[in-house]
Design a protein that fits this description.
This protein has 240 residues and is an alpha+beta fold. The protein has helices at 26-43, 134-154; strands spanning 52-54, 72-83, 99-105, 112-131, 164-171, 175-177, 184-204, 208-214, 225-231, 235-238. Strands 1, 2, 3, 4, 5, 6 and 7 form a seven-stranded mixed β-sheet that branches. The longest helix has 21 residues, at 134-154.
Amino acid sequence: MFPSQRTTGYQQVPPPLRSSQPAADYDGFFAAVGEALALHRREQAIPANWNLNYVEEYPRSKSSEGFDHSFDVVTFKVVSSAFAGVDRTGKGTIPKSLRRFHSQPHPTKARYHLVTEGWQENVVAEFQVLSKSNQTANQMAIWFHRFLLQYAYSMRFFQSRGIENFVFVERLEDDVTKEYGQDLNRRRLRYAFRLAFLVTYESKDLESIHVEVRQDVFSGAESPTESFDWSLDDGPKPQG
């Protein structure tokens, strides 16, 4: 799916038969997960002993230079991303140029169009569940995994935002990390999907063509050359 995506200065128009939701880049995907998570938590209460916090980085303490360990945390990051193929699976021929999706007359500038081009990437993202309690880490990992798959497959929440081919990749080995200043039980979940990246820019319309006509071009002899500019509005204008 290739819906509109934010760009500086212009509002992209979704190509026909595409999603009406804004396309998700990396940040857009993680924001969509956060939005879905907020909806899910309103519909399904979490255990009272969970202090679930969905953040990009482990929270810092407000009163010291260390970390705030009062939370049970889910962090996220991109593990890898690469050009996707042009077929439905994203595994076919890798494109060598951007694909044009849409073009429309500029709303305020004559002889200009707004052109939307883009590309696709196969992305692997990782979510880390971190808790001081081993039991809580296990329970949260299972709860979060079920939530993601429900919103991906049953509700198609991510597909409506241009996030395609969403699949569960793996759960890595459970471990304990000291990265955040204290022993924390860590559960790592990885998922793969395809994203669409769109770029909109101004393109000036063609106004004229310069033409040179040479006689006896195959004789090898000197021959006169006639040149003129062909205006798309007024027709040919001979030079000289």
